[in-house]
Design a protein that fits this description.
The structure is a single chain. With 437 residues, the protein is mainly alpha-helical. 75% of the residues lie in helices and 1% in strands. It has a two-stranded antiparallel sheet with strand order 1-2. Helix 4 crosses helix 11 and helix 13 crosses helix 16.
Amino acid sequence: MSITEITLLGAMRAGCVALLACIAAARTSRTAFPAQAVWLLIAAFMMPPILTGYHVATTRADAIGWMAEAQFSVLLFVRVLPLAMILAWLWPRSDSTESSHAYALMQRDSVSSRVTWRIRGWWMESGGIFCAVFLVAFQEFDLAACMNARTWTIAIFDAQAGGLALSDSLRLMVMPLLVEVALMTVLFARWKAAKKTDCRESKMARRMSLPSILLLAACCVPFLAPIMAVHDGWSGLSALREFALIREVGNSFALALVASVSAWLLAEWAIQSSVRIAIVALPGMLGTLILSLLVLALFQVPPLHFLRGTPLPVLVAMILGLMPAALFLRAMIRRSSRTESVFSAETMGEKSIHWELAGRPALLAGGLLFLQAYGEFTANSLLAPPSLTSAFSRIFNLMHYGRTETLSALLLATLSLPLIAFSVVFFAARFHVSHKR
């Protein structure tokens, strides 16, 4: 298949998946989620997709044709569903009485008119959500690599890894890039239009409806991967001496720490201005694959080509790739915490209140951002020098030999380090706050 045909196939798949995710998310009430459920959805979306892909790809029977496409499409739906639910809860919606009156009058029209108005109303309400979910589904790479799916991301990555000249790889990504630019243009237009309308605010709730509970359970599928790794990995721990990942895990940890902290600080600077947000968010919205290829081309131009063998290219790609998530988490914290309450707690020296309102959400957001950077696969594969091979890159290479207890143990060891580090930092910060009360 040509790159144009694969791109069209990917666009059709992403459109169907995004539409189903938006319809499912629309079934939940705007007051359906307590604060804990919102953070659970964010964590489910930010879990590295390679974890889910690892367990599915190493346990399923070899599927070809429509069966393989169906399996990948189902996993892709589960991948983007948390994002659709979060955006459906956050997206501004009209609360005008005129719209309700117009909807009542519409019931007297013909069937075609009612269908047209319903489609138009859905687009006005959920068009921006659809574009955002479509964009994420369209540029998915990690999950597709594990499932051996036919996507434009796999085609371009295989061509580049197979020795194709970078200039030819950049030409191959023109068609997908045009699709992404068109989606981002519509997305920003819908967001701008939504911000101008009179909107009702979504509020936190203590109880959830049954559809919300069922969808939330479906979103928890990515968390099954670490649980299964723990279940299968204990038996293979004794064989880790021959397959130690100490260097690779250390590389992943160091790169993720630098990238996540830099992205978090850059997001704090950028969130003060809409222009800054657009500048730092646009590169990351292109997807990690296109972003990595552009960074690779940038560092082949003199005098930057002297830095090609350093960690700088992969760090630049990782930081820019994290910016949309970092900005979103910053905005979520600002939205959920009341600035006046935080300021009052700081003024009165109430460290425990300040911890509940600002400290704990910021630490949780930073941990999720670090986890996403820690599981980064694309940028590490294309840009990292051989001495900085990441743990997930090696695990992905070993996946081709099938699932073994030793491989599950490697995954368990790889996931244990960030979990232990985050637990130590979290409890140390909590103890510090309690001690200062």
